[in-house]
Amino acid sequence: MRRDWSGEDGSMLVETLIAILILSIGLLAMAQVSVFSVMSSKSYGRDASKSTAFAHSKLDELQSLRFTDTTTNTCQAFPFPADGAGLTAGGSIAPSDPVANYADYLDSSGVRTASGSALFTRQWQILDDEANVKRIIVTVTSDRSYRNGTPPSTTLVTFKTP
Length: 162
What we know:
single chain; alpha+beta; 5-stranded antiparallel sheet; 1 helix; 22% strand; rod-shaped
């Protein structure tokens, strides 16, 4: 029993090879998208975590000041000089509107640096809510540019009493 292959022209094999080629191209495209997605998520997550840690650090600095402090400069590194605003009401948390004595700039390790080389902007606002209550708001924003979406930022709020 011999099978007669004379009527076959190989079209089934060509169709299979074309289907494998199309499938391979699709899988390679999906792999590139997956790699980009993982890398973007990693960078965004890293910056979001750091901005939260840097916001907590600034809240700790401000909480450690006396309730009546009006001169400590927490924009500088410790030991803080006495040429700042302390817990005087003022400041802004709008990322486009940093106020002198209520903003500092950080590198990737959280060390204070000049605004031109900063990777994070940290701003705070002090509000006198009542006679013996101050509201402290700290916002940290990543200065990296993200093509898809806004940079991560963290806003923390606490209250201070005498």
